[in-house]
Every structure is written in C-alpha cells, then in structure tokens.
C-alpha cells in the first residue's frame, strides 16, 4: 500500500496540471450501445456532427448495466460537463433525482419527460412517423400482411406499433398486422439473434414487410428480412443503406438533430420539446438505396398523408395517451 | 522447516503478482497506442486522488468485501461458491421487499430489518445448492453458477410483472420511502468533523462490512463451528471420524456464505440506488472470487483485496471516461490481476520459494535433522 501512497502523491501534484477543460458537453448512451445502427447511433451522429463543425470535444459514456445510470450521470455533472445529454426513457427516474443536485448543469433527456427547471425533455411523436411507414408498408405488401418487431415491451414501443398499424390499416383496411416484442428487459434492445428469429416467424406467417423498432435488435430483423428476400423498415437512423434494395424505408426519429441542437445551444430553455411531423422531428427516409422500392405513386400518396397529418385532418392515435390502440391489440 | 517466511507468503507474492499484472496491462495499453504511465496516474487520481474518488472506491470495496467474505467462508470448507452473484441479487429482492412492504419509522430499524431480509434471502438461495451438494453430491460449482441464471430470470420476472410501479416503463421497483434511506459516509464522517465529498454512493454499510470482517474472523478461528468448517475443508474423512456431520456443516457454511453475499444488497440497493433495478449486482459476485483468492480467504486479506478491486473499478471507470481507452480494457486489467493472483500464483510462488530456500541453505541450520 505504501506504493499506492507514493503514486497518490505524484498523482495529486499532477492533477493540477492535467485539469480537464470545463463545460464540454457530454452524452450518455443507454443500453444497446452507441453503435446500435439506430437510436443511440443517431444520438452519436448528432454529437459527432457537432464535434466536426465546431472542432469541440465532448465526453461520452456508454451504459453497460442498469445499475450505473445514476453514477454515470453524477460523474459527468460532477466533472463540470454541460450540457449533459442522455438518450432513453430509463434515465427519467434517475434524472428526476439527480438534476436538483446540480442546478448549474443543463440536462437534456430524449424520450422521457422530467419536470425540473434545468432539464430539457425531448419527446417525439413516433406514432406519426410510424403511421407513414405503416402506410408505405401496407402499400408494398403483396400478402396484405405486415409485421412489427418491438424491442422492450413498454408503452413507448407500443406507440410505434400502434401508429404503424393505424397507417397500414389506413392504406389498406384488409391488412393484417403481426406484432411481437423481443423481451421485457433492456436486454431486448440488443438481441439481434432473437430479432432475426422473430422476423423469420413473422415471414412464415405471411408478413412480407417487417418494421423493427428495437434498437440494436433491429440489425437482426433487417438482416433476416434481407436473407429471406422480404422487405423491412428501419427505425430512428436512416437504415436504408444497411441492406440496399431490401429496406423499404426508415422511420426517422431525428435524435441526431436533437442532440446536435442541444450541444450547439448557448442556453437551453428547459421544458418539454415535442418533435413530430410538423417540425421534421420524425419522418421517413428516401435515398438512392430505396428509390427503386418506393414508386412515384407510393411516395405521392404518403406525402399526401403526411400533409393531412400536419394539417390535422388525420389524427393518429397515441398509445401512450390512454394505453390502448384502436388498430392493434397487444 | 522448508517454507518461506509468512510475510513473503502474505505480502511479497501478491505484490509481485500484482506488479506483473500491471506490467502486462501497461504493455496492452501501450499496444493500443496510449501512454500507460498517464493511464495509471489517471486511475490513481480518479480513484484515490480526492474524497469524491474515495467515495466511489469505498462503495465498490464494500460490495467486494461482502462477496469476498462469502467466497472465503465457503473456501474454508473446501466449497467453491461461485453463486455470489445470484445470492446478492436475491438479497436485493429481500431488501426491496422489506423496504417497500413495511412503513419504517426510522432508518436504523429499517436497516436491521433489511439486513435480516438480505441475509435470509441470500442464505435461502444458497441453501438449495448446498442441500443438493450435501445430500445428492451435485457439485456446488455447477449448481451455484446455474442458480445465478435462475436468480437473474427470477428477478426479471418479479421486477417486470410484480414490483414495477404502474405506469413506469423501467423494470425497477418504486423508490424506497424516505425513512429507509441510509446516511451516506459523508453524513457519518461529519459527526467526527471529517469533511468528505458529498454525493458519492459510499454509505454506512461500509461499517457493517468491516464488522462482517471481524465476525467472520471470529467465526472461522474462534468458534467451534469455525473449527468444524475448517476441519471439513481440510479432510472430510477426518471430520467424519471426529464426529462432524458433513451435511450439517455444508448446509450451514453455504448459508452463511449466501447470507454474506446477500448482505451486499444493503450497500447497493438500500444505500445507493434506493430502489431495486435489474443487474444491480454488476458482477460483484464474481469479483468476490478474485477477492477471496487474493486475500487468501482471510478477512483482513479480503478487506485489502476488496480495496484494490474497488480502486480498479473506480479507476477503470475514470479511465474510460477521460481517455479513449475503452472500458473493456479495464476488464482486461482486472482479468490480468485475477489471472496472476489466482491461476498463475504458482508461477511466482515456486521461484520465490526456491529463492528463500537457497538463501536459508547458505546460513547454518542448527535445527536440521541428520536425515536431510
């Protein structure tokens, strides 16, 4: 132990020299990992974009287990990072406690609402974006059967499923929607093997377009659909390029924009920001990878629906408003 | 006397093991293009350079003391309890039930009840593999590790379907009521006028852990039961000959071991998170094995080893935070420490032993028998 004391002395003197620059922004990626090709990766892309444009640097932590959330949050706040952005509803209860202890730090949480003066909550109208991709899926389906694979079975993911089912039924009332969830714990965000199994099961039931709202699990869903020669729909990030010609489109949830703007803002306003179709917070992805899959008529139709939703003529039911869904039973 | 001195066994060999582990870790860090000296400084500074760092180090160490003692007690009976992970998880369930079901008036009473709950749940979870070992001869290593998985699944089920509050998406229990919140180490040290960084997870469970060390010492070396445990561990036929019932000793040893692992939950569930979340144990059950190995199954050794691993945990987290050294590399460092102190122990021990013997041979040895 005397060795340790020796190091201690050396380190203490050095600590003054290596002082870390203050007020760097920080981001915490929830379970699933920052390279999940989906939700967390969107956040990562936003942070990267900020770093490239400003030349700044930011701190990041990837959650490895449920039990670390509070420590990660406190450690970033304690070391002077500002703002601290976190992705995932699971931070909600933790942040509600921690935020009050660090009144000088701005916190931004994506996917949950935390009512604290120094917390900006960003939530998305996933049901609207899902409605559009559901509409497209039903149009592209030849068997009149579309699939949905969620990650963890929580109201937030049911909101995706419900919007998707409504969109599919709106495009074609005869459409059958098969919905499955990967699991009931956060491990379900990162289980591509099970995602692939569920996809194959849905395809064997006749589904020919499968929508994955499952974080890293979706990688397996998209892969399985491509292997079976069926279509899939990506989520959160633009996943069209993962399997060109097989991913019909992606339900874009602009977590990247949200993170980018949180990092860029001089001062965060606090309160709740709701991002939907009207302010481009959600949408569907079109690029060269899926140009051949989406016909002119399809795109025109879905653009029409989008305009109707923005105008308020089509009301997409939000599962989380009353925990029920008119188009799908879980 | 053909053994090396005691101090060499207890201090020198672990130290050499540790240095070797750090040396190899340094080479690994060098190989990925980072400065190992800088990394070590960062670890030491992050874990021990401030009372804030100490708060985390001691918090982790508290966990490891409990799981280390759990493994150590079982070792004395030659039982390899690698189910600390599951036993601690079940201990967490015990704590959560105690804290949520009863409106406690004050934390002291809640702490006593939670200690009983945590110990009881951990002990009962260890009792099943113990029974299978004692009565059926199912190997304890196999059964305890399988029980880790059963515990994780059971906890998943209970948290998702039973204890999750209505409307919550996160599979975790509700927050424990205010009256069950334990004082932090900061609050405790304030009584003595010692300033300590606020908002660290270290709490008064540390004191319970230290008491547990003392209790285990007395149990193993100062009680009849401890003697029986050690006798069974040294030789089962001899123990039977001496009238010791192996079934009884295996059961009671494993239950004490499970209870100690379960007690960890007071620290992480009641003291820190103040609610039960998934994976609350975070591998501490497995670290306990390394801690017990390194501590030579002695409570004091366990305490020192637990502090070392607490340092590695906290220092590693700092490393991952401030450098591009990935967190996985910290696991590599921990693994190297375990490898050198546990599995490769003989690699260092044999040459050191030879060296001591060689030194001794040069001196006159009056006590040597003529046969040598």
TrEMBL record, chain A:
Location in or out of the cell: Cell membrane
UniProtKB keywords: Cell membrane, Lipoprotein, Membrane, Signal
Signal sequence bounds: 1-23
UniProt KW Signal keyword: yes
All residue ranges annotated as the ABC transporter substrate-binding protein PnrA-like domain in the record: 29-317
Coiled-coil zones: none
GO cellular component: plasma membrane
Chief subcellular location: membrane
Membrane topology annotation: Lipid-anchor
Keyword Signal appears in the UniProt entry: yes
InterPro entries noted in UniProt: BMP_lipoprotein, Peripla_BP_I, PnrA-like
Stretches that traverse the bilayer: none
Family: Belongs to the BMP lipoprotein family.
PANTHER family assigned: ABC TRANSPORTER GUANOSINE-BINDING PROTEIN NUPN, TRANSCRIPTIONAL ACTIVATOR PROTEIN MED
Protein name listed in UniProt: BMP family ABC transporter substrate-binding protein
Automatic annotation (TrEMBL), chain B:
Recorded topology in the membrane: Multi-pass membrane protein
GO CC, alphabetical: plasma membrane
Coiled-coil blocks: none
TM regions (residue ranges): 12-32, 52-75, 87-104, 110-128, 140-160, 202-220, 240-264, 276-295, 302-325, 331-352
InterPro entries: ABC_transp_permease (IPR001851)
GO molecular function: transmembrane transporter activity
Principal subcellular localisation of the protein: membrane
Keywords: Cell membrane, Membrane, Transmembrane, Transmembrane helix
Localization in the cell: Cell membrane
CDD domains registered for this protein in UniProt: TM_PBP1_transp_TpRbsC_like (cd06580)
PANTHER family in the cross-refs: ABC TRANSPORTER, PERMEASE PROTEIN, GUANOSINE ABC TRANSPORTER PERMEASE PROTEIN NUPP
Entry protein name: ABC transporter permease
Organism (species): Litoreibacter roseus
